[in-house]
Amino acid sequence: MGARKERASMEQSPLLPLREELAQVTPYGAPQLDVAARLNVNENPYPPSPGMIADITQAVARAAEGLNRYPDRDFTALRKALAGYVRRESGLSFPVEQIWAANGSNEVMAQLLGAYAGPGRTVLGTEYSYSMYPEYVRGAHSRYVRVPRRSDYNVDVDALLQGLREVSPSVLLLANPNNPTGTASSEAELIQILQQARETGPVIDDRRTATVVVVDEAYAEFRSPGQPSALALLEKFPHLVVSRTMSKSFGMAGLRLGYLVAAPEVIADIMRVRLPYHLSALTQAAAIAALGHAEEQLRQLAELRERRDNLASWLESKGYTVPRTQANFVLFGPFPDRHQIFSDLLDRGVLIREVGPEGFLRVSIGTSQEDQAFRQALEEVTR
Ligand SMILES: Cc1ncc(COP(=O)(O)O)c(C=O)c1O
Predict the structure, then answer these.
(1) Which of its termini does the chain have fewer beta carbons within 10 Å around, N or C?
(2) b/e sequence 10-25, b meaning 16+ C-beta within 10 Å
(3) Residue nearest to atom 3 of ligand 1 (CA)
(4) 252-287: per-residue pLDDT in tens?
């Protein structure tokens, strides 16, 4: 079609009724570039082992034989396998009724907000946290309020407690360890927040509800040894939800499998809003097969943690401010012009992320070759 003809046909297109509040919104997404060192989205740098690939392939082939049927809507076998993994990782046992999963923790969060946020409601978060949180909240037509963090980028518990009292949020989103700062709150701090959140939700039918506290443990497996997971608090706090994912430590970002552990009542509420059959038979089969390889995945963690700590020390020795990280990335800075540093690194085949406090950059922990490439490129661009 010639350019003029094409324009003419476009002119005839009817105007689409896009929601007004989306008019200025651009699609979310970090760059996906084919460069030597991809250190911008906190993936596990190691591909699955040949044994894991073989098991996934076999399981998917078996599931393909039944693709004329809808999948198990309640994915009971997968929830059992996730319960086994959680027990192996944290030492805590949960029944299937306390486990839920969806296509990435992104979808888990969207379902949670579908049940507990909504028009006229408020979701509370903190500044310098996961950049998707405002997107989830927008999708739920709710208001997002952020409380400031301390100057060392840890959660300011007093500010958070005040926020809970002031805005009566139905949901609190707390990434722990936090992205992009890598910082983590202690168990004592979480308990303080959870105690107060028992009675800070909106009033419904003349009764004060709780704020649902979502502790997003996407990076839980990278936390320092001895630091307990919020899973240990579920028994005492039924308004706590612990969200996790297979995208990071488990090395399965491409699978899209996030899950949560919560009181059975929370799962029952999510079931009111989930779309039926949201987890395909292929996803369920692949995830179960992958979880059979938990031991080998968990074995890699010590090496990644050690590389993270070395990189953080190295960056500190170069004079950068580096918040104490318990995740698989390091935030460092400040730079007078972080975009320039980001672009100069990219010119050298190293892709990192411009995110977080003014002037800071975030780098994910990669293979030792990627780590070397990053260090060398950073030295060159800051010389
Ligand atoms: C704090 C946090 N939560 C959730 C996610 C998303 O994980 P998923 O891949 O399971 O959607 C990320 C990914 O970067 C994250 O940083």
Answers:
(1) C
(2) eeeeeeeeeeeeeeee
(3) 218
(4) 999 999 999 999 999 999 999 999 999 999 999 999
